[in-house]
Design brief:
The protein is mainly beta and 259 residues long. The protein is built from two helices and 17 strands. The mean pLDDT is 94.
């Protein structure tokens, strides 16, 4: 990325700072990653949890709320629920016991996440460390599409994950031609990558980078590289970078980890 004037440089700086402020706001949201206080992995059959009995059968999850527990979905009081998880367009979020409960799929496994806005992590959040903002870390690459390709990765919990991969982005950085393979996050590309700062200045399990999808060219702005949720909360489950997304240079941009 070329910044032609001091005015453009200032505008770019303000844009990155605004994105970082929004990032912190989302982390601190009542249902953000800092609010996650428990995760219950489900096994086939019935499990008793504080909100009620949860039954997993052939991939379907049913909740029977305990007597005396007030549970709501979308503001409506419920006693039973055929629970819709995060692999559906409109997942169910159960509000009960002063907490939010949602159903998530990671690989072949299902779990219930519990979020509480009074969590200690949320109360004690000390902010995020960053590398200095530098426009030279924003580059535009060409998109090369794939058909039927998947990323086979391992998660931070050891679960294998198979993620659809629409293609790769080929770009030049520090005089080297490189490539990253993303997965889709809604309409955006999500890259899981590591570099030679990993395990030192940045998280050893890699970082995330999001970009708008365009066949004409994809801008990778490493100043917006993010720590995965498991940096902030050990209960999060994060995909780790595949071998082809481990870059052979230092990306001194984006979020760092506190040493």
């Amino acid at each position: 990325m070329t910044v032609a004037s001091s005015g453009e440089a200032g505008e770019y700086q303000r844009g990155v700072e605004a994105a970082r402020a929004l990032r912190v706001q989302r982390l601190l949201a009542p249902d953000g990653w800092l609010a996650l206080v428990a995760r219950h992995w489900l096994e086939e059959g019935e499990t008793e949890l504080p909100i009620g009995f949860v039954t997993l059968k052939d991939g379907a999850v049913h909740l029977r709320v305990h007597t005396g527990v007030e549970a709501r979905v979308g503001g409506k009081l419920i006693k039973h629920l055929d629970w819709v998880g995060d692999d559906a367009p409109r997942p169910d979020v159960v509000e009960a016991l002063g907490q939010r409960w949602d159903l998530v799929r990671r690989g072949e496994r299902l779990s219930l996440r519990v979020k509480d806005e009074a969590s200690a992590l949320r109360r004690n959040f000390a902010g995020i460390d960053y590398f200095p903002i530098d426009p030279r870390w924003a580059v535009t690459g060409r998109f090369e599409s794939y058909q039927g390709k998947f990323l086979d990765v391992v998660s931070s919990s050891g679960l294998p994950l198979r993620l659809p991969c629409p293609g790769r982005v080929v770009f030049t950085l520090e005089g080297r031609e490189l490539a990253l393979e993303p997965m889709m996050d809604g309409a955006r590309l999500q890259f899981i990558f590591a570099d030679q700062t990993s395990k030192h200045e940045t998280y050893g399990g890699g970082r995330f980078l999001y970009a708008g999808f365009s066949p004409e060219g994809v801008t990778l702005d490493f100043n917006l590289a993010l720590n995965p949720p498991c940096v902030f909360n050990p209960l999060a489950v994060c995909p780790l970078p595949p071998a082809q997304n481990r870059l052979p240079l230092r990306i001194e941009a984006g979020e760092r980890v506190r040493g």
